[in-house]
Amino acid sequence: MSAQQSTRPLVFKRGGVEVTILVPLPLYPVAERLRELFSAECPSEAEPEQATTELEVTGKVLALACERAAQGTLEGGDGFDFLPVVSVVVQHLESRYLRGNDVHAAVAGVPASARNEVLRAYYLALAALGRRGLLTSGPLRAERPPRIASALFGAARAGRVRLIAVFGGQGNVEEYVEELAALVRTYEGVVEPFVRRAALTLAHHSALPEARDEHAARIDLAAWLEKPEARPAAERLLSAHISLPLIGVTQLACYYVAFKVLGVDPAAMAQFFAAGATGHSQGLVSAVAIASSRTEEDFFANAQKAIALL
């Protein structure tokens, strides 16, 4: 919002903590409706007192705003009533708590479960605003503070440290599925396009006649991530024809989130790893995929080849 635009404070309360957000007057009725919904869903009087912070409360407000914007309904509205409010909450979070820093640094002192909630809400909000062009134009772009570069990757760029990307081989535990599910839950706004493509690739290849001759079941990654009860038994998750491609998806999804969160393309990301990329066993496939990618389109194409190969 511009400095000249009139605003009005709106207070959100949760667990004894108050967060005051300045809302432009034209958006105030919708923001006030959001506060009513927030109070109805999270009545502080009905909850036990627990340690919480303004950042956590802001994350919860942002999560609800994103949810309502995605639902596209406000008293029969046109589906985008809440999106400008999402922008206002993001601006408040960035100016009040991030101040140009990375969101991961801001949530470092927050308990893990709450930390992931804030991260999920923040990246869902950025994805929603990005789809509507609200990150590259309008008030939010003008108000966002300059971004502070990553200390680690800044040191790598300056040559003070030499990094190497190392991808592991096939494991003997089934937790890799939960690791991928946790990544998707936290960074859905970032990683969803990659995981959707990977799921289609796995579904296609596992349904081919030659695959059906060797293995009975189709790999339905989308269902397994959405519904834990739909996942195969542990011994099947450990079988090579399932674990190899899904471990590869997990590795490449983590790398995808990393370069997207850093705001760089695969070519710039690769430059951080001056010592190169390598892997053990199947990890070599993931290493080749990232080393061969210069653009995001390259990465998508090479990742699908790697997943199909595995």
UniProtKB/TrEMBL annotation:
Pfam families according to UniProt: FAS_N, SAT
InterPro entries the record matches: Ac_transferase_dom_sf, Acyl_Trfase/lysoPLipase, FAS1_N, Fungal_FAS, SAT
Keyword 4Fe-4S: no
Keywords: Transferase
Molecular function in Gene Ontology: transferase activity
Domain Fatty acid synthase subunit beta N-terminal as annotated: residue spans: 6-128
Annotated source species: Olpidium bornovanus
Domain named Starter acyltransferase (SAT): residues: 166-309
Superkingdom of this protein's organism: Eukaryota
Protein name in UniProt: Uncharacterized protein
Claim: Transferase is one of the keywords in the record: yes
